[in-house]
Design a protein that fits this description.
MYOD Basic-Helix-Loop-Helix Domain, subunit B; DNA-binding; single chain
DNA sequence: TACAAGGCTGCGTGAGGTGC
DNA sequence: GCACCTCACGCAGCCTTGTA
């Protein structure tokens, strides 16, 4: 507030309250300031304190909200109404983001559960096959294991070599589609059987 | 370019509500 | 009943924008 404003208000208020103050002064001649005057000054200070708190709140809000941190397009300080509106918009944006992330998290949780079920099923299949009559545990040399592993990897590499590696996005997209197409449990199972059959025939031949 | 109009802000103050 | 808090109001100053 400018000095002119202060002078104006001081004069205005003194005129406004002169009558009642005179009455108060007549009632309490012991104090230099009337009760009403003291009340008015205390209230003025309290109101200033309240406005400071509100202003501080707006300033803090402006610091916290990213869209309020730069001045508006005209280059001027954002008005309080604008700060409020931008804060509302930002909170709504955050709420949308939160919901989106919750949906993603739920989808991933379902996927984890599905994969665990699949894992359990495959473990049961393996156990059942091991318990079948005629199934014997014969020791397999490391050389044979490596040979089989190499054959499986070679088979997979043939399919993998069709993926484009010209840039990262194409590569990552290609890897995902390759995993979905060639690394399905049934596909891998077929590949392993195929390699093992070939390996057996070579051993017999 | 001068001027009017309108918006924003800060100020002091009265009135009403609330807690002790 | 009193002290304190909050809200609403009127006011002035500053600034931008539109217009003659």
């Amino acid at each position: 507030m400018s000095k002119d404003q202060i002078a104006y208000h001081t004069k205005r208020n003194s005129l406004k309250n002169s009558q009642s103050d005179d009455d108060d002064d007549m009632e309490s001649q012991q104090s230099s300031l009337s009760y009403r005057e003291r009340r008015r000054e205390a209230h003025t200070q309290a109101e200033q304190k309240r406005r400071d708190a509100i202003k501080k709140g707006y300033d803090t809000l402006q610091e916290l909200v990213p869209t309020c941190q730069q001045p508006d397009v005209s280059g001027y300080k954002l008005s309080k109404a604008t700060v409020l509106q931008k804060s509302i918009d930002y909170i709504q944006y955050l709420q949308q983001q939160k919901k989106k992330q919750e949906d993603e998290r739920n989808a991933l949780r379902k996927e984890v559960i599905a994969l665990r079920i699949m894992q359990t099923n495959y473990e049961q299949i393996v156990k059942a096959q091991q318990l079948q009559p005629g199934h014997t545990e014969t020791p397999v040399s490391d050389e044979v294991k490596f040979s089989v592993f190499q054959a499986i990897m070679d088979q997979l590499f043939i399919t993998f070599s069709s993926i484009s590696v010209s840039n990262f996005s194409e590569l990552s997209a290609g890897v995902f589609s390759w995993l979905e197409e060639y690394c399905k449990p049934q596909t891998l199972k077929d590949t392993v059987y195929q390699v093992l059959r070939r390996h057996n025939s070579q051993m017999r031949g």
